[in-house]
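job 3f2a | input accepted
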Amino acid sequence: MRLERDVVLLITHSGDYFTVDRVAQALSRRGARPFRLDTDQFPLVVQLQARLSNQGLNHSLEYGGQSISTEQVQAVWMRRIWQPQLSKELAPQFQAACARESLAALFGFWDSLKDARWVDDWQRLNAAENKLRQLRVACEVGLVIPRTLVTNNPEEVRGFFQEVEGKMVAKLLTPLSYSMKGSPFFVYTSAVKEEDLLDAETLRYSPMVFQEQIPKQQELRVVFVAGNLFVGALDASGYAASTVDWRRATTEACVWQPHELPIDVVRCLNAFMARFGLVFGAFDLIQTPSGEYVFLEVNPTGEWGMLERDLGYPIAEAIADALLC
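job 3f2a | predicted structure (325 res):
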């Protein structure tokens, strides 16, 4: 018996909320069947079966009292991949190996969905996560970028600090948190003071990103979905105590306002996404007091719930349309 191909797989984790629910509701209204897969629940709660032979392949999942096979999946929304939550009863020396094997099995399952519509394909997501590649491509398509240094050399950092006249920020190459609420392990973009350079020798343990601090009129979160742009703006003066990173501001200080980008910036963002082959991305831009727009980065699985919640943008509807097109 041939199964109906009506499932849209929503890849996330058990702590996710709002956005995944909104997309699931939008899909249901369109007649699709959303299936939420919380990746942190594999392997303790989620069961996966992969059968392979010369006669054919069959992959299936069981979770939350439901079961699906790959032949039922028409589309996949790659929202989040989380580390497995393993039992504390498992000896510490086995934790890393079991987590590694679990993720390998999940990625094998993704591979079985090669004929499905992805927003977005995990291999393209991995390529787009590279912050240095982002800055290179942004520059190539015509976006303005901050002067940037990535190094593990303390002397280079001290020299760059002088070059930007002491107006410098530091951040990581990779994100440590993926949530509207953030995480105690999240390392925010932070201003660097001259006394901080005394600790620059610790760079021998890990390189960091250093950028000139761009003067801000507004901070922008620009959500791109299949050519549609949803732009939220924050008045940078509204949270003056933490102007380096809006995620450190209080909820009361983060008052999102709608914003319209100039057509030349829109063209550059479209070209940027085309270069990476992505359907979705959440850009961070700065508008300076002179009106110039500066590219900071794009998160290919970035947050957008606050824009839908506060501004009424139909982002979940746009994602559902992109998945079912």
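job 3f2a | Confidence is low (pLDDT under 50) at residues 177-186.
job 3f2a | closed
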